[in-house]
Batch of 2 targets.
Target 1
Amino acid sequence: MSYDPFARYYDADFRDYHDDLPLYRELARRTDGPLLELMCGTGRVLLPLAAEGHTLTGVDISPAMLGIAQARLDKAGLAAQVSLLEGDVRSLSLPANHFALAFVAVNSFMHLETVRDQLACLSNVRRALTRRGLLVLDLFSPDPRDLLHEDNRLILDREYALDGNHVQKFVAIDSDLASQLSRVTYIYDETSPTGQLTRRTMHFNLRWLYRFELEHLLARAGFSLRNLYGSYDLDEYTTGSPRLIAVAGVSR
């Protein structure tokens, strides 16, 4: 599917989300070298890191997402520090042994539904990292008790103003425990000041992972797990942790 028709909604949904920024700021501060963000969207994380003087490359498959990111970088005077690449994270050619830190923020890795796709992405990143490079994956932490309640019922998720119009976002999620797959529907109802209503519907799947499955997946791709956290405050990963954050290094 194309994410282009939803790029402006995605930007409005997430541009004020800052919970993970202290984590990436600290990791970037400790890193001596260029940074790589995969599935970078509209540049939510790229911009604050560039503003702190880091050199970054952002990759996304959506030209519209990258267009918004580029406009934001240009407006902030940060375009010289960030290279934006349009392409598929599974196959895009990246410079070998170049990046000191790579990361995939807020569940984006979960768009890769199969082990083959996950390994293709991870192997591609591994080739692009230096020998001492680090990879960070920030994932949803699956709790079967919550997943059982995701039965495709439609709920109003949020409302906001966008380009002078009023937007209502509705969400329905149907999760299957056997396949570890969530089928997600977003409905955006956008109403103009004159009352004209435009509805756009987006369907996509998210594949969740469990901790040891993730560790084995990283090992198959040539990584070794360094740390596993359950929150952006770097709490230990335990039952009930809101996040599953893996920090992995390139295996020798």
Target 2
Amino acid sequence: MSIHIHFIGGGNMASAIIGGLKTNGFEMSHITVIEPDAEKRTQLSATYGVQNLDTYVENLDSATCQNIIVLAVKPQILQEVCQNLAKKISRKSSPLIISIAAGVQCDAIASWLGGYAAIVRVMPNTPAQIQAGVSALFATPSVNETQRLQAEQILSAVGKTLWLSEEHKMDAVTAISGSGPAYVFYLIEALQEAAIKLGLTLDEARLLSLETFAGASLLAKQSAIDIQTLRAQLTSKGGTTEQGILALERANTKGIIQAATEAAARRANELGTLLGKG
């Protein structure tokens, strides 16, 4: 039985996943994107060769094709999308629903789908656009092992995957990996500005800041040594790095970063509750 993936929404994350699937050899004729924006439909067709529709088809699943439906719309319109979708799917073929809409919990999605609960909730992040992302996944009990594997394969096309056993951990994931790229960009921005104040040109500051973050991250990823030890190895007694680290410690930088992630997690929880009320 063939697999057909229907993307409802053709924005950046949907495009990133489709691009990753293409790179991994998935048959593009087995992907349909339902997207009301004509410009986005044209771009997706030209770039990937996928099928495009401007509205829902009458039946998004059938006995002759195993269907996966990816909800790739903004959280604010997910309720309306799901309520329309509930009229189009048949429970006979048990399509897998994958939601990448941030914050909205599986119970709310199932309710809007009229009680249909074969749902995998996913929190990807923006580096998925270059297939270097990390996605956390949570499956409801209605999702079978084959569907779990299918969800993992789809998200693996854009980076690493991590299964969560408890859905409430999604708030922490949102705060760390979902919002995390913005924190990294903020730190790169700060290092770049500091470099300019020390007399380097913008081009020099940009190159040194970007390559330092990229190289250090790659070293940490590939090294068998833990992060704390790697940092300690660079911090020679009485040296320049030690003075920099002491300044960061005096400013309570770790505490500030922890406060930032806690604030992001709280907001994720608040938005999930708000969006799920319907």
